[in-house]
Amino acid sequence: MFSIFLKIFKTPDNVITLSSNEIDQKAVVTTLKELEVKIKQLFHGSLAIRQVDSGSDNATEQELVALSNSFYDIERFGIHFVASPRHADMLLITGPLTRNMAKAVKRAYEATPSPKVVVTVGDDAENGGIWQGSYAVSDGINNILPVHYHIPGDPPSPTAILSSLLKILKAIDPKTLNS
Amino acid sequence: MLAFIISPAGFLIIPTLFIIGGLGSLFFKQNDHLANLWISTIAMLASLWGLFFSLLFILFGQELVFSFAPTSFPLLSLSFHIDLLAGFFVFIISLISIFCSLYGLGYLTHFYKKYNIAVFGFFFNFFLGSLFLVVTASNAVFFLIAWEIMSVASYFMVVYDRHDKNNIKAGLLYLIMTYVGTAFIILAFLLLYKYTNSFEFAEIKNQLVLVPNYIKDLVFVFTLIGFGTKAGIIPLHIWLPDAHPAAPTQVSAIMSGVMIKSGIYMMIRLFMDILQPIPLWWGVTILVIGIISSLLGVLYALTEHDIKRLLAYHSIENIGIILLGLGSALIFYTLNLPELALLGLIAALFHTVNHAIFKSLLFLSAGSVINAMHTRNMEEYGGLIKYMPQTALFFLIGSMAISALPPFNGFFSEWLIFQTLFQGITELNSVWHLLFIVAVGSLALTGGLALACFVKAFGAIFLARPRSVEVLHAKESPLSMRLAMGGLSLMAIIFGLFSGTVIIILEKVSTSLTAFSAITSPLSVSASQKITIIPDFGTVSAPIIFITLGALVLIILFLVKSVIYKKQTVKIGRTWDCGSDLDSRMEITATGFARSIVVIFKGILKPSLQQKVEYHDADSRFLQKSRTVTMQMGDVYYTYFYNPLYKIVNGLSLRVRKIQNGNINAYISYIFGALIVALFSVL
Amino acid sequence: MNLLIFIIQLLLVTAISPLCTGIIKKIKAHLQNRHGASVFQPYYDIWKLLHKDEVISKDASFIFRLAPFIIFAVTVFVGFSIPLFTSFSNIFQVSNILVIIYTLAIGTFFLALAGLDSGSPMGGFGSSREMTVSALAEGGFIFSLLTVSLINHSTDLFTIASANLFNFSQPFLPIILAFSGFLIVLLAETARFPFDNPATHLELTMIHESMILEYSGKRLALMEWAASNKLVIFIALGTNLFFPLGLASEATLVAILIGLLAFVIKIIIFSVAIASLESSLAKFRFFRLPDLLLSALIINAVAIALIF
Question: What does the radius of gyration of chain C's CA atoms come to, in whole angstroms?
Fold first, then answer.
C-alpha cells in the first residue's frame, strides 16, 4: 500500500489548462435556439451529465472517458458524470441512433427532469456520419429529440469536447480555467 | 359502582357473557349474518367489560381471592386468585379481543354460505372465555380444565377452513403438540400435589419447603416443556408456523398475540412467584432459550414467503425476547439483585403487551390483504398500496413497531430489555456477564434482521408493480376491519407515547408479587414521561422523540416544498430501467430479497434451490415457456429431534404391544401375577 | 451565549456535512493526480438540485414521496442529539445510545422501502443488499457504543463524551478494540469502501446509490445531503465517544471556539483517512462483507469482555 502513496507523491501535476481564447474558438453548432441565461446560471456551478450511447462505434465514448482522467480533469469545472438520467442536467448523446436504441434514447430523455440540455457529440450523431442512409440507423438524434447543441468531430478530442462544453455554459469563472 | 366492577361478581360477568355468547350463537344456525353480529357484539361487550375491570382493578384494586367449592369433586374447587399480575394479563386479553372481535364482523362475511358461522361463534366465545379463566384460576385442576377448553376450542378454529387439507394437518399437529405439553404440565402438578398435598396454588406456595430440590428441578423441566410448547420456544415450536396461518385471521391474531402469552404468564407465576427460591440454572436456561428462540425465529421468518408463516415465526422471535427479560429477572433475583430483577420483569411484561398489540395489528392487516387476494403467497402480491392504502398504512405502523423503531411502542420495550441486559453485564461477576454479552449480541442481531424482514414483507406486498393479475381486482377491506386495525395502530402509538405511564403501572403490577414486595424500583419516571434507569445510566423520553421528529419532518417539508423554488413542477413518468420494457418480472421478489441473508446463514438454515423449467417444445428444449425457482430450507427439527423421538416411542410401543397377544391364558396369568405382587406389597 | 450554542448545535452537522464530502472528494482527486472540484462543490450541487423539477415514476407511492423528508429529518435529529463540540449541550435530552442507533435505523428502513417502491430492478437489489449489510452492522454498532458506555457507566452520550481522556484511568485496550470495530461499522453504514463505492456507475456494484437512482430534484438533494449528514454523524460519534478531546466543558467563548476548531480538525483527519483508504483498497466482493461485519461484532464483544 505504501508504494502506491510513494508513487502518488512522486508523479508531477499534468493537468492541461484551457485559455478563454481556445474556448471561444470552438465550433459548437447550435441546432435549437440558445439556452436561456437563467438555465445557464443554474448549471454554472454544477452540471451533471448523463452519457447515452445510441449505437455508436465507441470512439466518442473513449474520448468522453478520457475527460475524467488526470490530464483533462473535467471535475475541476464542477461537471461530473452521473449514472441515472434522473440525476442529470445534460444528456450527451453519441452514435447515429440505431433503430434498436430509438425507444431507449427517447425514454432516457423523458426520464430526465427539466430544465435539461441535449448535446450530441460526434458527426454521426448529427446526420448519421459514415452510416448515413443505412437501414439500421435513423440518421441523427435530432429526428426524435430536440437537440440544443452539437459538438462536431469524428470523434472530437477531449480538449475539443471540454472547451465546447465550457463554451455552451459560457458563464464560467475565469479563475477556474487556470486552476 | 367502582366497588362492584372490581369485585368477584364483576369479574365473573366476563366468563358468563362469553358462555352466553357461545351457547347463544348456536341458535343462529340458519342466519349467518345474525350469527356474525351476535358473536362479535357479545365478544366485544365482554371484552370491553374486561377492559374496564382490569384497568380499574390495576389502578384501584387489591387482590381478589374467591372460590366456589362444589362438594362432589373434593380435589376440584373453582378458586380464583386475581392479583395485579393476573389483572394485567386480563387487560391484555381484553384489549386484543375487542379489536379482533370487531375485525371479525367484516372478516367472517368471507365464510358465509361456506361454513357454519354459528359453530365458529360457539368455539370463539368459549376460546376467549377460557383465556380469562386460564390467567385467573388458582387451582391446578381448574386451571387444567380451562387450559383444555382453550386448546380444544382453538383446535376447532384452526381446522375451521376444512376444505384445505393443509389446515387439517396443521390442526392435528397443533393438537398433538398441545397435548404433549399438557401431559407434562399435569405431571408437574401431580408431582407438586404428592409433596404438598394440595392443588391450590396458594397452598403449594406456602408448603413449598416440603418439596425436595430434585423434585423442584423436575417440575421446572416439565413446566418448561409444557408451557414452552404453548409459548412456542425452539425446539417445541413446530406447530406454530402451521397452526397460526391455518386459523381465520382474528383467531390467528388472538392465538399469536394472547394465547402464547398464557404460557409466559404461567412461567412468571410459577418461577417468579410460587416456586421461589429457585436455583441459578433455571434463569440461565430460560435466558439461553430466549437467545436461541429470538435468533432462529427471525432467521426462519426471513426465509418465508407465506405472509402468515412469516408473522408466526416473528411471534417465536418475540417470545424469545420476552424470555430474555424473564430469564435475566430470574438470574438477578437468585443472585440477590432484586431491583434489577424487577427491571427485567417490567421489561418482559412491557414487551408482552407491546407484542400483543403490534402482532395482532400485523395479523389483521395480513388477513385483510389475504381476503382481497385469496392467496397467502407473498410472491403474488405487489403494488397493493394503490388499491388498499389504509391497510398499507396500518401494516407500515405494525412493521415499524415490531422493528423497534422509535416512536412506536416496540422501541421502548426493547430499550428496557437492552438496559436490563446492560445492567447484567455491569453488575454480575465474570462468568455470567459473558452470557449477558452474548444475549446483547443476539438481541442486536435480532433487531437488525427483523428490520430487514419487514422491509421485505412490506415491500413485496405493497410496493412496486403488481406481480399477478389478481392484484388489479383487489379492493380495500370493509369498515369494521379497518376500524379494528386503526384502533390497534392507535394503541401502538399511545403505548409508545405514554410508555412512562405504562412503566409506572407495570411497576405497580410487578411489586404486587411477594418476591418484590419491599423493593425500590430502579426506574423512575418524571412528570414529562421521561424514563430514567438507576440515576444517569440511561434516560429516554417518548414525547420528546415523537414531538421533535414530527416537528422536524413538518418543518423540512414546509421549507423544502414551500420556501425554496416554489414553482417546481413534478412530472409523472416511467421507472428508469435503462430504457427497456418494464414488466413485473423485473422487480425483486421476496425470496430474492432475503436470499443474501439466507446464503450468509446457510449453515443454520441449510437452503436448497430447485429449478423447474418448462419448454415450448419438449424435444428441442430451446425456447423456455416458464421457469420456476423455489428456495426451501432444510428441516432440522424433524430430522434430528422429532423423527428419532417418534421412532423410539413407536419402537417401544410395538414391543409393549406384544403383551396384548389375544391369548386368554396369558391374560389370566397376568391377573394372577398382579394379585401376587399386590399381596406382597400389602404384607 | 447559550442561545448561540443552541443554534450551532442544531445546525452544525447539516451545515458542515457537504464540506466533509467535498474534502474527501478533493483528497481523492489529488491522490489520483487530478485537481478535482472545489471543496464547496457539494453545496453547489445541492443548490442546483433544489432548483430543478422532478420526475416521479407512476409506480411510486406516498412512501417514495415522503421518504426523503423522513430520512433527512432523522439525520438532522441525530445530528443535534450527539456531542459535537461541547459535552453539555444536550438540548433535547434524547442522546441515549439506543435512541441514536434505532433512529438511524428509521432512516435505513425508509431508504430501503423507497428503493423498492418504484419497482426498478436496481433499486430492489440495492435495498436487499443494504438491509443485509445494515442488519449485520447493527450488532457491531451497538456493541462498540456499549463498550464506551460500560466504561463510563452511562448510556447517555454526553456523559460519555465528558470523560477526561488524560485521566488515564480508563482501560486502554477495550477502547482501541471497540474503536476498530466502530470504524468497520462506520464504513458499512456510510456506504464507503470496502462496502460500497460512492462514485460508481455500475448498478451491479451499487448499494446505497442504487436506492436513490429514481430520485431527482429536491428529493435527490435531500437524500444526498442526508448521506453526507450520516457520514459526519458517524465521524462525530467515533471521535467524541472514544477519544473525547477538545470538547468544550463550559460555555465560554474560548472553549466554544476551541471545540469548533477541534471538530473541524477531527473531520479533516477522518476525511484524509477515508480518502486514503478508498484510494488504496478495492471494493470487496459482496459475500466477503458479512465476514468483515461479523468480525467487527466479535472484536467488540471481546472488547466488552476485556473491560472486567
Answer: 19
CB-based contact, A84 to chain B, within 8 Å:
yes
Please tell me the distance from the alpha carbon of residue B545 to that of residue B562, in angstroms, as a whole number.
Answer: 25
Q: How far apart are CA A179 and CA A70, in angstroms?
A: 13
Burial class (CB in 10 A: 0-12, 13-18, 19+), C230: buried
Show me where the domains of chain C are located. Answer: 2-136+154-176+192-285
Rounded Cα distance, B275 and B138, in Å: 14
Decide if A69 and C34 are in contact by the 8 Å CB cutoff.
yes
Q: How far is CA C226 from the centre of its chain?
A: 9
- Which residues between 184 and 213 in chain B have a beta carbon less than 8 angstroms from any beta carbon of chain C? none
Which is nearest to B232 in space by CA: B320, B325, B363? Answer: B320
Q: Which tens digits make up the pLDDT trace of C108-134?
A: 999 999 999 988 888 999 999 999 999
Cβ partners under 8 Å of residue B231, min gap 6: B260, B261, B263, B264, B267, B319, B323
Rounded CA gap, B394 and B488, in Å? 9
B629 touches chain C (CB under 8 A): no
ipTM above 0.90, yes or no: yes
The enclosing H or E element of B80 equals: strand B78-82
C-facing residues of B in 368-407 (CB < 8 A) are: 382-383, 385-386, 389, 392, 396, 400, 403-406
Q: Are B343 and B423 in contact (CB under 8 A)?
A: yes
**Closest to B5 measured CA to CA, from B52, B66, B75:** B52
Q: Model-level pTM?
A: 0.93
Residues of B in contact with C222 (CB under 8 A): 556, 560
* Phi-psi sector, A122: left (phi>0), alpha (psi -120 to 50), beta: left
Q: Where are the domains of chain B?
A: 298-560, 601-634, 637-682
The pLDDT value given to residue A35: 67
pLDDT tens sequence across A87-143: 999 999 999 999 989 999 999 999 999 888 899 999 888 888 888 888 988 878 888
Which of A20-29, B223-232, C223-232 is least confident? A20-29
